[in-house]
Design goal:
The protein has 96 residues and is an alpha+beta fold. The protein is built from three helices and five strands; from the N terminus they run ββββαβαα. The protein is globular, with a radius of gyration of 13 Å. The model has no long low-confidence stretch (mean pLDDT 96).
Amino acid sequence: MDIQHQQNGSKGSFYVKENDEILAEMTYSMAGDTIMIIDHTEVSDALRGKNAGYQLVRTGADYARANQLKIIPLCPFAKSVFDKKQEEFKDVLKGH
């Protein structure tokens, strides 16, 4: 799965695009220089069951690690991934 990233000012997203159609997307906002707030995750039915949502969250976490950011997962889906995979993501979770 090819996950792309775009950032425009303090907003950004990680997304999967095929044939000029976005099939999965996780959006975020930056709060200052060190906090990434994941605010929305959406996956189309075409990618259901393929772990696309988890892969978006994991890619966001990898980006946060590479850029010394901490994440606040406000999006209910992203929060559930952080809760289920605490060991994997605790290093980038704000407050840990």
